[in-house]
TrEMBL record, chain A:
PROSITE patterns cross-referenced by the UniProt entry: 4FE4S_FER_2
Residues in 4Fe-4S ferredoxin-type domain copies: 222-252
Keyword 4Fe-4S recorded: yes
Gene: dsrB
Organism annotation: Candidatus Desulfosporosinus infrequens
Protein name: Dissimilatory sulfite reductase beta subunit
Gene3D superfamilies per the UniProt record, alphabetical: 3.30.70.20, 3.30.70.3340, Sulfite Reductase Hemoprotein, domain 1 (3.30.413.10)
Protein EC: 1.8.99.5
TrEMBL record, chain B:
Keywords, alphabetical: Cytoplasm
Xref: Gene3D superfamilies: 3.30.1420.10, DsrC-like protein, C-terminal domain
Gene (UniProt): dsrC
Protein name per its UniProtKB record: Dissimilatory sulfite reductase, gamma subunit
NCBIfam families found in the cross-reference section: dsrC_tusE_dsvC
UniProt-listed InterPro entries: DsrC-like_C (IPR042072), DsrC-like_dom_sf (IPR025526), DsrC-like_N (IPR043163), DsrC/TusE (IPR007453)
Annotated Pfam families: DsrC
Homology family: Belongs to the DsrC/TusE family.
Active site: C104 (cysteine persulfide intermediate)
GO cellular component terms attached to this protein's record: cytoplasm
Presence of the UniProt keyword Flavoprotein in the record: no
Location(s) in or outside the cell: Cytoplasm
One GO term of the biological process aspect: tRNA wobble position uridine thiolation
Location (main, coarse): cytoplasm
């Protein structure tokens, strides 16, 4: 028999715990009794505790089964994953809350990620599965979260800090709108395999994939040529054609972007902007990256007002003040030069020496 | 990398079963490729789509967009999936000997 097709995902209501189903759309307020635990109270007075636990996102089936065992024991078999790939255990019986927290602590699960903390890092495939990355995802995320673990467990930041990592400029995930974005970048032009292009590449699509128009068709050779002066190594041509290999172990690395957000609270959503153009890939612990992120983070903690997101703080004090405080070198690489760059230049006389 | 025997001829395939060199295509190769795509027999309608894809590729150097493909052949998307269960890219383009679709597929 053929498989059942086009049936869509199962209805989410089939998997809600009874307390959520009964109070659906009738929640009154919530509070955070301790880091990692949320308490929602409904109009009927029913309370639901959710215990938020970190996950590395890339997990084995054994991990999922272990989590299911915990959910069976303490949550009547219910749990959920958050949009940042944390796990939430639902506890409707307050008596089971502390035993669950105890067993989570004993088994090494990290409880946290609520309120003004660093929650999980949204990240991508990296060297685990993708063919276009300029850096790894899981490895960098592990190194950064190890370094900043204290901020996951506790809520001692001025505001919440969201981090995203993308292993190439495709930016799968949220790096373009995160407080701190970690992005894999190349620094060398693609190497053209003319024979491969002749055998099976759609040359017009390849030419059209280049944002700077650096690729021209070469009809005589039935291939393409790249103008290296125009190439800024985005790697989009490699996405279109396997004949344009661009990865380079020595020259690939990481750029750091800061100041993005998606919420509309206080200020409008904003893109993150590059503050460090390049840090080397130094696997397995990426010490330069963890150090740079910690330095930016601590500067923000020391200087921001309460409730002020990283980008809001930088906008308030001004970017030149951010660079002088952080001691980060400001280079011409940070000045936008892509088509509509004019909007990002200073057109006023208001600035600090 | 695998190989596909077509009569006395052997053609190279990549790991997804697309032709390594699209110049190696002929009608017998198409029949052999069709058998890897759950297409038992290439009917007149199959050939109409295959020939359209090959003509379009020869003229423009790219595979047509699905909308264009439907409009020009008169087949709607459902019909294309009936003809080639693998769909317009993995099924029809493969049998027609076009390069493997790229990008975030």
């Amino acid at each position: 028999m053929a498989a059942k097709l086009d049936q869509g995902p199962p209805n989410y209501k089939e998997m809600l715990p009874p307390v959520i189903l009964e109070n659906y759309g009738k929640w009154k307020y919530h509070e955070i009794p301790r880091p990692g635990v949320l308490k929602h109270v409904s109009e009927s007075g029913a309370a639901l505790y959710s215990v938020r636990v970190a996950s590395p996102r890339l997990v084995s089936i054994d991990f999922v089964r272990d989590v299911c065992t915990l959910a069976d024991e303490y949550c009547d078999g219910f749990l959920r994953f958050t949009t940042r790939n944390n796990i939430e255990f639902f506890v409707s019986d307050e008596a089971k809350l502390n035993p669950l927290l105890d067993v989570l602590a004993a088994q090494g699960y990290a409880v946290g990620g609520t309120g003004a903390s660093i929650s999980n890092i949204i990240h991508t495939q990296g060297w685990v599965h993708c063919h276009t990355p300029a850096t790894d995802a899981s490895g960098v995320v592990k190194a950064v979260m190890d370094d900043l673990y204290e901020y996951f467990e506790e809520m001692k930041l001025p505001a919440k800090l969201k981090m995203g990592l993308a292993c190439c400029l495709n930016m799968c995930g949220s790096t373009h709108c995160s407080d701190i974005g970690i992005v894999g970048v190349h620094r060398t032009p693609p190497r053209i395999d003319h024979d491969k292009i002749r055998k099976g590449t759609e040359i017009p699509s390849l030419v059209a994939s280049c944002p700077t128009g650096a690729i021209r068709p070469d009809p005589k050779n039935k291939s393409v040529v790249v103008n290296n002066d125009k190439c800024m190594y985005c790697g989009n041509c490699y996405t279109m054609s396997p004949a344009m290999e661009i990865y380079d172990a020595k020259n690939d690395g990481i750029a750091i972007l800061i100041g993005g957000k998606v919420s509309n609270a206080r200020s409008a959503p904003s893109f993150s902007r590059m503050v460090i153009p390049f840090l080397p890939n130094n696997a397995p612990r990426w010490p330069e990256v963890t150090e740079a992120i910690r330095a930016i983070l601590e500067l923000w903690i020391a200087n921001a007002n309460k409730g002020e997101r990283l980008g809001e703080w930088v906008e308030r004090i001004g970017w030149e003040r951010f660079f002088s405080l952080s001691g980060l070198p400001f280079s011409n690489m940070l000045i936008d030069d892509y088509i509509f760059a004019r909007e990002t230049f200073r057109t006023g006389a208001a600035f600090k020496y | 990398m695998s190989q596909l025997a077509v009569g006395s001829l052997t053609v190279e395939l990549d790991e997804d079963g697309f032709l390594e060199d699209h110049a190696a295509w002929n009608e017998d190769v198409a029949k052999a490729l069709a058998s890897t795509e759950e297409v038992e027999e290439l009917t007149e309608e199959h050939w109409k789509l295959i020939n359209y894809l090959r003509d379009y590729y020869a003229q423009y150097g790219v595979a047509p967009m699905v909308r264009k493909m439907c409009k020009d052949t008169g087949f709607d998307q459902k019909k294309i999936y009936v003809l080639f269960p693998g769909g317009p890219g993995k099924g029809a383009c493969k049998v027609a000997g076009l390069p493997k679709p790229t990008g975030c597929v």
